[in-house]
Write a structure and sequence with these properties.
single chain; 404 residues; alpha/beta; Beta Polymerase, domain 2; Rossmann fold; 3 domains; six-stranded parallel β-sheet; two-stranded antiparallel sheet; 15 helices; 10% strand; elongated
């Protein structure tokens, strides 16, 4: 929805148009979220701004929109940061994207104290979830499942060679997992040699074009294919030739392309372990079950952390109230003191001035809360209870005695 170069101006427009006091935008391939601090509760100004920005009527977007206010918004951000609101449960990539959204907002001047505190809190909670639950210990991507199968067959991958056919996102993730598990030699084959070279360069591998695939196939202990080819790019004859050159050392071939990159007839060859993406479902489902169990623990952590954040938020209102109360008391004190000093300069008796000024000070301080309590009457007993608690007043024994 928002390209990276659009984000700074969109954030500034949110503030300039009065839709929010603070703002950040998370925009990925499958989600666009606007985090806002608004001056008025239940404000729908960010929604109207978003629909205007998109050039669409609200009713056209209603089925695709969700709005989280207050504590619900805090919980949502914590769940997003912890990977509990992702298409792949527990995936960590969105945390990095959320950090990028925060930094973009900071640079654009749209993130202030409130959102800044919320983002920092979400980062800490995500770390706590990763540390204290197993949600990140059971990867559920096709790429990880592929590497796990390879390890089951070969054990230590350190001395092996992998041939990665394709250069898309899944192949990139597979290359990373292979490197993390000790594989040191990679060949990347792709229709675009430039893309193959870019990926191979990250892992000190080397790149080849698809036309050179048969020449290098014999070098590979592990072959993982994921291209967009409409027809198979590896046939039985090419694999047979590679096996002869390898003197029938086993090959692990994983075809995760749809449609298939490897001719199914290859499965009939000895010394070849051929798997397709369908064979990975069991591994993925097992890990998903483990993640769901960990997610229950993560939800408990998040619920408690939402409470902590809301307590901090409410404490901001308390501090502001205390400051306003002290300011009012100081104003009254200055007024009463000025009047008393004037009377003393005019020669009035100090004792009488002192008695008058203390009575006046007491009346001015007590008049507003007394008036509010009288006006509330029986309809707002909560105010009376709050006043007794605030001023440490004794229980209502006088009233009970008079009613006997």
């Amino acid at each position: 929805m928002f390209s990276p170069d659009m984000l700074p101006e969109a954030l500034r427009a949110l503030l300039r148009d009065g839709a929010a006091a603070e703002a950040a935008i998370l925009s990925t391939c499958n989600r666009t979220e606007i985090y806002c601090a608004v001056d008025l509760p239940d404000s729908d100004r960010p929604v109207h701004w978003f629909t205007d920005f998109c050039g669409r009527y609200t009713r056209d977007l209603n089925t695709h929109l969700y709005v989280h206010p207050d504590a619900s918004a805090v919980k949502h951000v914590l769940r997003v940061a912890s990977g509990l609101d992702s298409l792949i449960l527990g995936e960590p990539q969105v945390l990095g994207q959320l950090k990028d959204a925060y930094q973009t907002g900071v640079r654009a001047g749209s993130v202030g104290r409130l959102l800044g505190r919320l983002f920092q809190h979400s980062f800490r909670v995500a770390k706590e979830v990763r540390t204290n639950t197993a949600i990140g210990s059971h990867p559920v991507s096709v790429a990880f499942a592929a590497v796990r199968l390879a390890r089951q067959i070969f054990g230590d991958l350190g001395g092996g060679t992998a041939l990665l056919v394709g250069a898309g996102e899944t192949i990139e993730l597979t290359a990373r997992h292979l490197a993390e598990h000790g594989l040191r030699r990679m060949i990347v084959a792709n229709r675009s040699l430039e893309r193959a070279q870019r990926l191979a360069g990250e892992y000190s591998g080397y790149a080849i074009g698809l036309q050179d695939l048969p020449k290098h196939l014999y070098e590979a202990d592990i072959v993982i294919c994921s291209t967009a080819s409409p027809t198979p790019i590896l046939d039985r004859a090419a694999v047979e030739g590679a096996l002869r050159q390898r003197r029938h050392r086993p090959m692990f071939i994983l075809d995760i392309a749809v449609p298939r990159d490897v001719d199914p007839a290859v499965s009939g060859l000895e010394d070849v372990y051929l798997y397709t993406v369908d064979d990975l479902h069991g591994v993925i489902e097992e890990n998903l079950r483990s993640r769901r169990e960990a997610a229950l623990q993560a939800e408990e952590i998040i619920d408690s952390q939402v409470i902590h954040f809301m307590q901090w938020l409410e404490s901001r209102d308390t501090v502001a109230t205390i400051r306003a109360l002290r300011d009012r008391a100081d104003d009254i004190q200055r007024q009463v003191t000025d009047d008393a000093l004037l009377r003393l300069r005019q020669g009035e008796a100090p004792e009488q001035v002192l008695r008058d000024v203390t009575r006046l000070l007491s009346n001015k301080l007590m008049h507003p809360p007394s008036a509010q309590l009288r006006a509330a009457g029986e309809t707002r007993q909560d105010l009376a209870r709050a006043a007794r608690e605030l001023f440490s007043l004794p229980a209502e024994s006088g009233r009970k005695d008079s009613e006997r």
